[in-house]
From TrEMBL:
This is Epimerase. Transmembrane segments: none annotated. Belongs to the NAD(P)-dependent epimerase/dehydratase family. It comes from the Bacteria. Coiled coil: none annotated. Residues 3-291 form the NAD-dependent epimerase/dehydratase domain.
Amino acid sequence: MKILIAGADGYLGWSLAQALTIRGHEVAGVDNGFRRQWVEEMGSWSAIPVAGIKERLQAFQERYGRELKYWEGDLRSYPFVEEIVREFRPDAVVHLGECPSAPYSAIDVEHAVFVQTNNLTSTFHLLFAMKEHVPDAHLVKLGTMGEYGTPNLDIPEGFFEVEFRGRKDRLPFPRQAGSWYHWSKVHGSNNVMFACKLWELAATDIMQGVVFGTHLEAMGSDGRLATRLDFDQAFGTIVNRFCCQAVIGHPLTLYGSGHQQRGFLPLEDSMQCLTLAVENPPRKGEYRVLNQFQNVYRLDEWANKVASVAEVLGLPVEIRHVENPRRELEEHHYRPDHAELLRLGYQPSQDVDRELAGMIARLKPWAERIRAKEAVLLPDIRWDGQRSRVAYR
């Protein structure tokens, strides 16, 4: 298949380009380096150094024996997006090119508006370009489990069936997003669903849990092929942040009680699931939703797991609770379904402790690099719009 990855320079995009190439697909990428700029704006950098895009592309060709066709530019420009789609004519488009941060969207009005416009505009442009030039192609859009919120009932995969007066219907499951970012993803999902209905496009909306991990086996030891690993408050996911804290002896910081529940999956599992979605497209005109996670965990479970693994590796750390800067329920019901990916062949990782041990081992050589940006490990972005550093409880 010919597969275009939007956001190919990012954490997931760079990993997916390699995972799909290994499977024999012809992959192309597009990015404008926003993720690098956003993390720099947060006063941080990737814990593992990230090569420049020219070095990355050279290493890619050397490793896999083929060129990764690559465009550098802004998905908010429709002529640019249309030119790429018209030239490459992909069989599938994987949209990872949105701003993936709730805290970033909570900074102020400029950041909230940017996240909404960037995420919605880029999705619209891909949809219209596909309609015009590759109407039979499959869009795989990265959503988030955060679109659902934490409702007091079980979460199906996107839809639920209702019956009234003997008539049945299939309705989208209500979304209760908890940030401006998550609402941008909800709006994007609605637009994709309507495009499938209006233009008979085929689309898969991935409701992904929290991804953690530093490495894919395919990347080998060439640092130019490594993906990024962020640990700041806006772009560092919680398990990645905990592992970086453990490496430098910083307390593992839990927001509030730590009883919040979320779906999680290792980076390797994310690649496995995205590949399954790409290689098993829905029928023309279908809007398909896949809930993508390995298992549901409480946040304090992760703190305890990381602390236990770190101690075995000679890195004793403490767990400390901090004020929760977010507006969220800390005690709640959470039971989402993810049967469809299992049906497609997803084999969840079982040994999470081994994955954590590998992460910490790969991060240890970069301890001083993490320590140099230690200030970003405590958040100061609050959901109420007041910018101030949180305190330990």
